[in-house]
Amino acid sequence: MNDVFVLLGIDMETDIGSFTPFLQGVEKGTPLLLKLFNKKGIPATFLWVADIISQFKPLTKEIERCGHENGCHTLQHETLGEPYFDIPLIKPVLSEEVAYRIQKATEIVGDVIGTQPLSFRTTRFWGNEITLNTLNDLGYLADSSYPMYYYKKQLTPYHPSRENWTESGNLNILEIPTFADLTIESHDEYGRDRDQWPIFRIEGSQVLMNHIENMITYFSERNLPKVFCFYLHPWEFIEVPSRLTYGEATIEPFPFITKNCGLKALQELSILIDELLQIGGQFYTFQDFAKIWNKQLSDE
């Protein structure tokens, strides 16, 4: 179990997530990522909010041409699952809406990319049984909504239970936990300071590599596969103003959200990829990793 598996998930959404209607990141940041990934020779998974994908059909074709995967990241960047903590004005959709919204998002993304998306991630990693059961029944191969920093229970990819999505079971879909450093002491009520985002950008790639190396040791001591799933956003790789005014409001995100966005973020991501390749990291799209993982299970 010396292999190091690396998965990069790019959330294709409006700038700064739910807080603006702008798409400068998707338009201008995505080509920068494609150029970087091509230079490094690595694949990634681009997870689209269905509400915006129809504006970028040529970009989805370029993503596919470059050997990457197009997946889905909800219908309108809404919250589908159970909230772990309060965010002002952000409420999960009603449970009876969840299946329809996922079905509709899948249909829209599928119509644009020409085939059904096979990989998914919820907004803010808030999942639940309805979400995973719906994804499974729609034929998705992979989901990366499990926040390792919060549950701290599933350390490696697993097939969820229909009754409890955070437990192993018999669903076909593979749940891929999103990386967190469980070796450090958390000073946050919810463990969010163990999460990897956006350490590479605000503290530097070497700081994130220290956390990765911590978990490599942690996995090795437990004889577990070393799987690292990261999430990024294309708006992180363009200059993002610290204060935005539009409509009838002014948005001023916390400094860490916009700090070092642009060229600095791209440089640090490039260094991080090099560091991961140097330690033998093997990069996969979500769906290709799920196929490999499932084949290994069937061969055992």
From TrEMBL:
GO terms for molecular function: hydrolase activity, acting on carbon-nitrogen (but not peptide) bonds. GO terms for biological process: carbohydrate metabolic process. The lineage of its organism: Bacteria, Pseudomonadati, Atribacterota, Atribacteria, Atribacterales. Pfam families: Polysacc_deac_1. This is Peptidoglycan deacetylase. It comes from the Bacteria. It comes from Atribacter laminatus. Keywords: Hydrolase. Its EC number is 3.5.1.-. Gene3D superfamilies: Glycoside hydrolase/deacetylase. Residues 14-300 form the NodB homology domain.
